[in-house]
From TrEMBL:
Native source species: Gloeophyllum trabeum (strain ATCC 11539 / FP-39264 / Madison 617) (Brown rot fungus)
SUPFAM superfamilies, per the entry: S-adenosyl-L-methionine-dependent methyltransferases, Winged helix' DNA-binding domain
Stated name of the protein: S-adenosyl-L-methionine-dependent methyltransferase
Keywords, comma-separated and alphabetical: Methyltransferase, S-adenosyl-L-methionine, Transferase
Keyword Lipid metabolism: no
One record GO biological process: methylation
Gene3D superfamilies referenced in this protein's UniProt entry, alphabetically: Vaccinia Virus protein VP39, Winged helix-like DNA-binding domain superfamily/Winged helix DNA-binding domain
Pfam families: Methyltransf_2
Domain of life the protein comes from: Eukaryota
O-methyltransferase C-terminal domain span: 243-395
Molecular-function GO term, any one: O-methyltransferase activity
InterPro entries: COMT-like (IPR016461), COMT_C (IPR001077), SAM-dependent_MTases_sf (IPR029063), WH-like_DNA-bd_sf (IPR036388), WH_DNA-bd_sf (IPR036390)
Coiled coil: none
Keyword S-adenosyl-L-methionine: yes
């Protein structure tokens, strides 16, 4: 085992090598290097080049590992134990429309008095929340009590006017058709609904009545909703249309965790499918991903399948975002319960993204079986989700992931946080497991596509 000094130096070297690689790639594309002060919400294409993604993952993992190694452990554990306060402050920023209020102020920012006027909050309390966020690199405090947007805070800007948001008080429920900037979608869901579910998770998995349960109606979410219903049965109730919109927008928003257009990866083989081939998006949500496929490959037909209430939102989403496909009939919408036989047999592709992880294994296998039964000899089933890798070097799965360089955790630690957070969200919300490591039932061609940290797209070796 390397000495502590060597470890520290190895981490520093990894940081330095990663910065070199990132700098070279950005310079080669004449792109300015990332800056915390930038308020451009988009990332340049170079950020998604495989070498840059890998260097960014190594950099992130090395920086956090170095910090956790050196900073006093009492401080570190206090910070981990109180992480929910950061989420609470982010929720305050969202509900006070702070990012929108600051949009036109530019670098000089606004005094907190002028930010606070879009909600009933007291300026002093808002200043404390924004300062907490600014100390975590979300917003900038450019002078005492004067805040400006930055690289992170623009991600919670809906693009709407703060004055309008104040009068509507509808920020959390933008319609799916007029989807907010992709990046916004997940934050309200995470800082409110998921926040409450997380608070109920420990008591749920320690309660002898629910500890051994794998049933959706025993998940922690039921202690938040007060109804013994699985999350989707609860969401589909007419009186939950507000949360259904929040949820569907969150699904649009999780796109931000992917490499853009990840779904178009050439290994999936969209362009080689014959003209008129049918692609079924099973449990599509509003069909964010099949829409990207339909837009890039006009020779394909798409069938969007989901529960009835979501299908109605999907129609609006497509009418707004790809009207040509709707008017030409290239996209069809079908209400469908994926525990029942699929009405579309022999489609070229059945794809199912971030959905299998919503269900305990028994139900997950039923969903996969229905797809396999609808498929014919030439169909292909594409499942997209996170692959959960152990943090140690010894790997138990058949997935061929290259481990992170020593002395990093093999799974890149904090750089892979999205996958592990998603797993815990699945536990609390669905009593499910965010993993596609179990073998699916027999079907002709099954691809399991990993969306881990955007680093890899691979299929298991078996
Ligand atoms: C986590 S979302 C994923 C949505 C979409 N695939 C995506 O990647 O954005 C899971 C979807 O499963 C749908 N769903 C839940 N139960 C279903 C059922 N029994 N039959 C069909 N769809 C269902 C939900 O309405 C929701 O849209």
């Amino acid at each position: 085992m390397a000495s502590p000094t060597t470890h520290l130096r190895q981490l520093v070297n990894l940081i330095s090598e990663s910065v070199d690689k990132i700098e070279q790639a950005y310079n080669a594309r004449s792109e300015p290097l990332p800056s915390l002060e930038s308020t451009d919400p988009r990332l340049p294409e170079v950020a998604f080049e495989p070498d840059v993604l890998k260097a960014t993952a190594a950099l992130t993992a090395a920086c956090t590992q170095l910090q956790h190694t050196v900073q006093p452990q009492t401080t570190q554990i206090f910070h981990s134990a109180s992480a929910h306060h950061l989420s609470a402050c982010l929720n305050v920023a969202i509900r006070t429309h702070a990012a929108e209020a600051l949009r036109s102020a530019g670098d000089k920012g606004l005094h907190v008095r002028d930010i606070a006027k879009f909600s009933p909050i007291q300026p002093e309390k808002l200043a404390r929340c924004l300062r907490m966020l600014a100390s975590h690199y979300i917003f900038r405090e450019v002078a005492p009590d004067v805040f400006a947007n930055n690289r992170l805070s623009v991600q919670i800007d809906t693009g709407k006017d703060a004055e309008i948001l104040r009068s509507q008080d509808l920020k959390a429920v933008p319609s799916c058709a007029h989807a907010p900037p992709l990046t916004f979608g997940f934050s309200p869901c995470s800082t409110e609904f998921q926040f409450n579910i997380a608070a109920k998770l420990p008591e749920t998995i320690l309660d002898p009545h629910t500890a051994d349960s794998t049933s959706v109606d025993n998940a922690a979410v039921t202690r938040v909703t007060g109804q013994k219903l699985g999350m989707f049965d609860w969401l589909m109730q007419p009186e939950q249309s507000k949360y259904r919109s929040i949820f569907n927008n969150a699904m649009v928003g999780v796109e931000m965790y992917n490499v853009p257009e990840f779904i178009l990866h050439e290994d999936i083989g969209w362009k080689n499918l014959p003209a008129g081939s049918v692609v079924v998006d099973v449990a599509a949500g509003v069909g964010t991903h099949s829409l990207i496929v339909a837009r890039a490959h006009p020779h394909l037909r798409v069938i969007v399948e989901d529960l009835p209430a979501t299908i109605e939102q999907a129609k609006d989403y497509w009418k707004t975002n790809l009207p040509e496909a709707v008017s030409s009939g290239r996209v069809e919408f079908q209400s469908y319960d994926f525990f029942q036989p699929n009405a579309v047999n022999g489609a070229a592709v059945y794809f199912c993204r971030q959905t299998i992880h919503n269900w305990p294994d028994k139900e997950a296998v039923q969903i996969l079986k229905q797809m396999a039964e609808a498929a014919d000899e030439s169909s292909r089933i594409v499942i997209i989700g996170h692959v959960m890798l152990p943090a140690c070097r010894e790997q138990s799965s058949s997935w061929s992931f290259e481990p992170a360089p020593e002395p990093l955790l093999a799974n890149y630690g904090m750089a892979s946080r999205t996958a592990y957070v998603t797993d815990i969200i699945m536990m609390g919300t669905f009593n499910a497991v965010s993993s596609i490591s179990y073998p699916p039932p027999r079907a002709n061609h099954i691809s399991l596509v990993s969306s881990n940290n955007g680093r890899a797209l691979s299929t298991p070796s078996s």
